[in-house]
Each structure stands twice: as C-alpha cells, then as structure tokens.
Write a structure and sequence with these properties.
By secondary structure, this protein is an alpha/beta fold. It has 20 helices and 19 strands. The chain folds into 4 domains: 262 residues, 3-Layer(aba) Sandwich (Rossmann fold); 156 residues, NAD(P)-binding Rossmann-like Domain (Rossmann fold), CATH 3.40.50.720; 33 residues, no CATH class; 49 residues, no CATH class. The N terminus is likely disordered.
C-alpha cells in the first residue's frame, strides 16, 4: 500500500527514543540537503516508520512510502495512510485481512509507489529497496525484448512465485506504456537496502550485469548488525513469544539455529530468561564462538527435537527447509520463531517451499504474528511466530543509517563516485551514525569533558574533533602536516631517549655485572678514554 506521509499525534513516543534521527534534523535540517529529491521509502511498517519518513520530508524531500509488510500494520499506523486504506474494512475481519495479500498485489503496490505521474519516477529508493530495484530491472529487460520482438513477458514461463507476479505486473503496465520503466531508470540516483533478502537480490543483479544504478548495502554494516541483529533481536524475541503465546520462558528447552549476530542475541536472551539453550550449527567458527559463550553446541537435531519447546530460526521459508523436516517430531504446542521481521504470515512467500510439509494440516490464525498449525492425525499443533519488530532505540540506528546512506548517494550524484555496483556501508558513514547518536545521548558538560580527554588521542585514530557537540568528521588518512608533526615528535623522543642513556653511561666509571659465572668488571672510563 502506498501513501503520502502524514504527521500523527502518537509518533512523538518514537521520536523520543530515536536520537539519531533528531540529530540528523538538527545538523542537516537547515541546509535542506534533499531539496528537489523524490524518495520512495520501502520500510517495515512499525511505529518507528512515520518519524523516519517524516525526517526525509523535513530534510527537503518529496516522499512516498510503501509498507513492506502490508498486512502486518498496526491500526494506529494504518490510520495515517488514508485515503489509501479503508480503516473500518481493515479492522473488520482479521482472517479476511490476512488472506487478502496476494503476491501480485504486493508487486503492484511497489509499481504504484514508483509511479509519480507526469513528473516521472523517484530519484532514490530508501529502505528495503532490493524488491523495487528488481521490479525496475525486470521491467527494463521486458521493454527491451518488446522493442525488438514485439512480445510481452510471459508469467507462465516461470515457476518462481515472485517472478510470476513481477511479470504479471509488468505485462499489465506495458499495455499502457511500453517504455515506462526506461523513463524511470534515467532519473534514479541510487538505492539503499536494509534486508538480507534484498541484499541478495542486489548482489545477484550486480553479478549478472543488470544493476541499473548504485546501491549501498546497509544490512551488513556494523551499526545494523550489532544494534538490530544482536541487541534488537534479544529484545524482540522475548516480546514476540510473550505477545503470541503468553508462555513462560524459565525451564523451557530452546534450540537456536546458527550463531550469527541475530542468533547469538536470541541465544543470550533465552539463557538470561532461564531457558535451557542449545545451539545448532555445523559452522566451525560458530561452534567455537558458541562454546566460548557458554552454550552447548549440537551437530544433529534428531535427539533434541522431541524434547524442545522453542525453535529459533532466521526464517520460515524455502531458505530454511531443514526445520520443516522435523515438524512432525515436535511436541504439542512447540514454538517455531522466525527472527526475520520482514516475514508476513499472510504472504504466499512466507510458506513457499513448505507446502509438502504443511499439506493436510489445518491453519488457525491466532493473531497477525502467530499461526497455529494442527496435525489432523494426532490433533497436536505447532505455533509459528514472526518477529514483531524492534525497540525504538535499536531501530534508530537502522533508520539513521538509511538516511545517511541516502544523503551520501544524493550528494554525490553526477560525480561518478559510485558506479552501478553494490557498495558496503562506508566506515566513515558508520562512525557518523554513531556520532549522531552519541551527541544526543550526552549532555554538553559531559561532552566537553570527553572531548578534553580524547583530544590528545585523536591523532592516533585520525579523527578531527569538530563542532560544539563533537559531531565527528572522520579522516581515514592523516594529512601531510600531520605526518610531518608525527615524524618530528618521534625524532625528538628518540633523541631524548638515546641522549639520556648516553649521558648515564658516560658518567658512570665502572659497571659491575653479577652473573652465575665468575664476576665481570667493565671499566667504562678506559673504554671512553677518560
């Protein structure tokens, strides 16, 4: 669903816990760096989304946003999207609402968000931009084929549900304007991506040479991986289980798949909550890390599955068929928790690849984040839960990273700095994101004391201490004058050191050296000729 961002009375609560965005507004707001930019935001729709999108507007951009999880939206958030959404109908029937989102509608919504009318398309795609980029790339390819052969794309030529839906949307649009995607791509400056799946799409497009504009992968940045994957998942896991099942954690046996940052955070959270946690991984590095973290590591699931109460997995779809092989062996009311907040339990792709395992089972929708699947032969059931989202402070790091990445792309448009490739989030920008949070978390008096303490060390890490709030500007390479100063300082220290030793040696007439063998006496005066 696409809509124009509007202010809402409740987004104040998110703003309080999102200091990075407030710092962005304070530092960049006066210069309006996004003036003239048309931005499509494609985020996970949570309470943090409105402040994030509003910041882009306050920085001068014209913004439209598309919910990445169209049936996973809080009613209070949905209320800000009128006239795109009939709220009464949205609330009327939960089950109908959950069944309403078909894949074709999702891709059609993306196309709607990209359509800015006669003015063209967007200049930037911010958030989960991999899907929108994929649609544009496929559209350009289809238009090129049509120009040469006169043939429209054939959705039935593929078994992939996403590609089938994409080709359907493209075909319907080409009947109206057969060059629509070509016109749009010419105005696009770049895209930022914050999801693992979208990142894979972008890297695949880069590999086959079809990426049409630069992309910055925020998902793999330190700020995202630590503050969202590690710390965010720790909080979201317990919150999701309690919201979805009201289960008590102490005493339960939990199996965590993998030991990346997200899995590590979940394992730590469950252990601190009193669960008996084991980590399943076949990766040697993760095995060592989990062992050093105090967790028992298992290499096979057969023995532990019948006893476990909670299974924590990166996702519940075709990317993780392993867990599906063991569903019938799980105990009654066992929980399968997906760490991926992008997952929408209503989505067709949610259970893509699991059809054969869920065949014959009865699905009961407990709430928008929880499905209950009942085995007809035993009447036992399993619960599938999706991540409900992260605390505002954790999301602040991700949202601020997206804003900074978009600023980087927009400010360097036309310079040739970025080619049509996927770039990791640059380290200086990561430091900038941290600085924007640090500035608002610290009072002026404390900041002054901190500045005084670290100014003497700043040259060692090539940082320039600037501004009243110490919003640091990073300099990854020392300047020429810095190098000269360092060399002169080292030379002075060397002269002082060796001069002191020489003076001491020349003023001592004799040195007696005590060793386990016969005593040695060195006459230094004779050696020096005195």
């Amino acid at each position: 669903m696409a809509g124009v961002v509007q202010a809402s009375p409740w987004d104040h609560y998110s703003k309080v816990e999102m200091p990075g965005l407030r710092s962005c507004l304070a530092e960049f707001g006066p210069s309006q760096p996004f003036r003239g930019a048309r931005i499509v935001g494609h985020p996970l729709m949570t309470s943090e989304t409105i402040p994030f999108e509003k910041i882009l507007t306050d920085l001068g951009a014209e913004v439209r946003c598309l919910a990445l999880n169209t049936c996973f939206i809080m009613d209070r958030i949905a209320a800000t999207w009128e006239p795109w959404l009939d709220i009464d109908k949205f609330r009327a029937n939960l089950e109908d609402r959950m069944k309403a989102r078909w894949e074709t509608n999702y891709w059609q919504d993306i196309k709607c968000a990209l359509d800015w009318g006669p003015s063209g398309g967007p200049n930037l795609i911010v958030g989960a931009g991999g899907d929108a980029t994929f649609l544009i790339n496929e559209g350009v390819k289809a238009e090129e084929i049509y120009a040469k052969t006169g043939q429209f794309p054939d959705p039935s030529s593929t078994d992939d549900p996403d590609l089938h839906a994409v080709r359907t949307v493209i075909r319907n649009g080409m009947e109206i304007d057969p060059m629509w995607y070509h016109k749009m791509k010419d105005g696009l400056v770049g895209v930022s991506e914050e999801t693992a799946m979208g990142g894979k799409r972008l890297y695949q497009m880069q590999a086959d040479g079809s990426l049409l504009f630069p992309a910055i992968n925020v998902n793999d940045s330190v700020t995202k991986s630590k503050f969202i994957n590690l710390y965010g998942c720790r909080s979201a896991l317990l919150d999701g289980i309690k919201r979805g099942t009201n289960m008590t954690i102490p005493g339960k046996k939990a199996v965590v798949f993998g030991y990346e940052d997200a899995s590590k955070g979940c394992a730590i959270a469950l252990k601190q909550a009193g669960a008996d946690v084991v980590v399943y991984t076949v990766d040697s590095n993760h095995t060592v890390q989990a062992g050093l973290g105090g967790f028992k590591v298992i290499k096979a699931l057969d023995d532990v599955v019948p006893e476990a109460d909670i299974f924590v997995t990166p996702s519940i779809n075709k990317g993780n068929i392993l867990i599906a092989n063991y569903m019938k062996k799980m105990k009654n009311n066992a929980i399968i928790y997906s760490m991926d907040p992008i997952v929408d339990l209503n989505s067709n792709s949610m259970y893509a690849g699991l059809e054969q395992y869920l065949s014959g089972m009865k699905r009961i929708i407990v709430n928008p984040q929880t499905d209950k699947w009942v085995f007809p032969d035993t009447n036992s059931s399993i619960l599938m839960l999706s991540n409900t989202g992260y605390p505002d402070l954790m999301s602040s790091w991700s949202c601020t990273s997206r804003v900074v990445a978009a600023l980087e792309l927009w400010s360097n448009r036309g310079t040739g700095k970025y080619e049509n490739k996927v770039y990791d989030f640059p380290e200086p920008l990561e430091e900038k994101v941290s600085a924007l949070h640090f500035a608002k978390h610290t009072t002026d008096s404390v900041m002054t004391k901190t500045t005084e303490k670290i100014e003497g060390r700043a040259d060692h890490v090539s940082l320039r201490m600037e501004g009243p709030r110490n919003i640091l500007a990073t300099n990854t390479e020392p300047t020429g004058s810095d190098k000269v100063k360092r060399m002169l300082l080292m030379a002075a220290r060397a002269c002082l050191f060796f001069g002191t030793i020489g003076f001491g040696v020349m003023t001592v007439p004799k040195v007696n050296v005590s060793l386990p063998f016969p005593k040695i006496c060195i006459d230094l005066a004779a050696i020096w000729g005195n």
